[in-house]
Amino acid sequence: MFHTLWFRAGLFTIVATGWFNIAQALELRGECIQGGLIFGLTQPGNQIFLDDTEVMVSGEGKFLIGFGRDETGERLLRVKGGPGFDELVTLTVAPREYNIEKVDGLPPRTVTPDPAAAKRIAEEAAMVSSARSRRDARTDYAPGFAWPAQGRISGVYGSQRILNGEPRRPHFGLDIAAPAGSPVYAPAAGIVTLNHPDMYFSGGTLILDHGQGLSSTFLHLSKILVEAGTTVQQGDLIAEIGSTGRASGPHLDWRMNWLNRRVDPQLLMKGTPQQILE
Question: Do residue 74 and residue 121 come from a single domain?
Answer without folding.
Answer: no
